[in-house]
Every structure is written in structure tokens, then in C-alpha cells.
Amino acid sequence: MVRDRMERAASAAGRSEDSVRLVAVTKGHPAEAIDAALGAGLRDLGENRVHELDEKATGHSGLDVTWHMIGHIQGRKARRVAQLADLIHSVDSVKLAERLSRIAAEDGMEVAGLAQVNTSGERSKSGFDLAEAVEQIHRIAELPGLRIQGLMTMAPFVDDEAVLVDAFAGLRGVLDRLHSATEAVGPELSMGMTNDMDIAIREGSTIVRVGTALFGERAGGLR
Length: 223
Known about the structure:
Blueprint: H1 2-12, E1 21-25, H2 31-39, E2 44-47, H3 50-59, E3 66-69, H4 78-84, E4 87-91, H5 94-107, E5 111-118, E6 128-129, H6 133-140, E7 146-152, H7 161-181, E8 188-190, H8 197-202, E9 207-210, H9 212-215
Parallel strand pairs: 1-2, 1-9, 2-3, 3-4, 4-5, 5-6, 5-7, 7-8
Helix pairs in contact: 6-7
């Protein structure tokens, strides 16, 4: 059980399970998966693709749901994401942050996001480069209308615990340095998925993004 894993990992780190939020990632699953999640008491739901977020959020409007956008966002879709998502995990560039800030000003709203950091250095992953992350995230945290509530990373899909620890500890280190420099960045650390959530929680994760362990395999074998 996912909750049992979370509780054990939190306990091993001397933390309460309540200090970690579970986001149920329904990407690639039908609307019935959302109904099942809601029936199980889950209220934080995540999507990787804008069209799925749009369909599912619109189809479940009026319910007590917090929607999370965790996938890469093309600039032309940024406004729709800002309208739909309660928290955007994938603010992965200065350009996107500036676009979201402009949208917030134009639409009279506030956009809540997490700055995505590429802690592994993999070219296939989006996010701020680790070496430049503190400076760039400090910069975007000052943009009007954009509230950076913390950071997000995606670790390599490997079984090597040392590699995973490095990825998660690297993100925590960026957040620590940011907190020494500014009060404009929040405390959230979104890190950990089905295969590595235990390690992520031990390394300080406050949000885990879980799909497979809750709903089974998706098309394409994505986590």
C-alpha cells in the first residue's frame, strides 16, 4: 500500500506521514481512475498533459480537488494551465516563468508554481541546470503574480540508491541555499514517484507524485 510505504519512509526519517502530500497521477487512465481516487479519499490529482488536465478538471468541476500540472508546458498552453492547475510543478525556465507572470497580470490572478531543477543532468529532462538554479530561481521568485512555493525534480529511472539520493539531496541543497538568500521561495520539495518515493521522503520530500502504484501501468510504461 502506498500510504504504508509513505508512513514507513517518513518514520525512518523522523517525520510524520502528514508532512508528505500524495498526488495521485492519473495520466493515461480514464475518468474512472479519478472517481476511484476520490472514493479513496485522495484530493490531490496530477496530470502530465494539458489536454488531459483540461478534460478531467472540466469533467470534475465543482468537486473538492486540487489539480497539479506536473508535465512540461508549451508556451502557447501556459494560459490554460494557469487557469486549470492549482499548482504547476514544472516551471522549468525563466521564459516560462515570465510568461506565467504576464498571464497573472493580464488575467488578474496569482499563479502558484514549483521551479523544476534538473538535478541529474540528463538531457532528456527539463528544468534549471543545477549549477545555475539558485540564481535563476531567485530571479523568477521576484516576478509579480508568480508564487514559487518550492522546487521539483525528476530523478533518473534507476535502481542505484546512491544516484537517487544524490538527485534528491541536490534539490534539497538548492532549496537550502535559496532560503538563505530570499524569503520568496516556499518550502515544498516535490520529488519521488512509485519506484523511488521511499528514498525521496527520507531525503525531505513534501510531495510525492504516484501513478503506477495506485492505478497500475499506463500506456508506454510511464511511471
